[in-house]
Amino acid sequence: MGGILDEVLELADRSAKASKIHKEYAIGNRYITYIEFGQYDCLDQFLSWIENRNTVQDYHIGLPYILEGFVKSGRIIDA
After folding, report:
1. With a threshold of 0.90, does the pTM exceed it?
2. Tally of structural domains, the chain
3. Domain that holds residue 72
4. Out of 12, 31, 33, 53, which could bridge 46 as a Cys pair, Cβ 3.0 to 4.6 Å?
């Protein structure tokens, strides 16, 4: 799985260099990428990141991924 995952993460890193806002989006994109690839150990960090940013857009985009990750990782009580 490393090849494709690494490629996606590299794209996020490259986009982060475009501007400050792209750098912020890249952080969220990295979390989403890990979740999409079944790596759920970042769920709590992603949720904290969203809570600290406190924007409606981040909640709307991030929470579905977090909830799905909690369910798929067997942490249904956290969902």
Report:
1. no
2. 1
3. 2-78
4. 31
